[in-house]
Amino acid sequence: MQLFDIATTDLEELIQRAFAEDFAHDDITSLSCIPETTQAAAKIVLKQMGCIAGLKFVPTIFQLFDPSLQVKLFIQEGQLCDAGVVLAEIKGPARSILSAERVALNFLQHLSGVASLTSRCVARARGTDCQILDTRKTILGLRSLQKYAVRIGGGTNHRLHLADRILIKNNHLALASAHAPAPLFFCIRSARFRHPKSWIEVEIGSADEFTDAIHAGADAVLLDNMTPKEVEMCAKLNQMQEGKKAYLEASGGIALDNLAHYAAWVDGISIGALTHSAPALDISLKISPI
After folding, report:
1. Is residue 136 part of a domain?
2. Which position among 89, 164, 212, 224 bears the catalytic label?
3. Is residue 1 part of a domain?
4. Is the same domain home to 118 and 175?
5. Which among 169, 229, 245, 286 is annotated as catalytic?
6. Active-site hit among 203, 230, 249, 267
7. pTM greater than 0.85
8. Is 267 a known active-site residue?
9. Are residues 25 and 101 in the same domain?
């Protein structure tokens, strides 16, 4: 599985879009209530236990808004912290701190939420060789950052985009069946012909399809919406294969409460909720004049 870096220019563009969305440079409340010369010190405080991700971007966010702001970080990325911990301190013009506050907290709360949920899932798979994988079910424009947060939480990135590698899903097979009597074999072999060096994964919905996927040459098999018993059956069939074994990925209906039932049998579990439904971590900013 690949790791994906976040380009500095992409990050800065995203931050500037967030400032524009929030009209941060036209904060009529702060401009009305706070004298221009007021200096302040602010602390970013964690209000619930969690895994911190995105704190490394906080200095960039505040200093893109106002280069005179000074930011000091106290916690490392990926650190599991208790409620009450001070994550960072910001000093400088009070107006600037208040105007950039929400953008900074939105990034930090969301990415830490993704990392925290991922960390909890990783903990449930501990003692096995199972990876916790993300998906492409991401918030528009935030995919690279969300996948970064998954890595910080101990997870592993699945494909970043459609050109990353081949994943043949049910809809591909349904359409291929219109012109191919054996759509699974057709799709895998066609993909192998066109992209001989690409990793090829195919989605199946039952143990009956597993052997066909292996015989057709799939590198990985996505076991979709299967029960733990069905997944176990596929794992045992995989072990019976001669030569290189397929990478087994389970997905669909897997959450914290049942994850351990699958982890013992597969190489990876993909969970869309890591990026589309992770609750934001509760983090606040407290400010005082200096």
Report:
1. no
2. 224
3. no
4. no
5. 169
6. 203
7. yes
8. no
9. yes
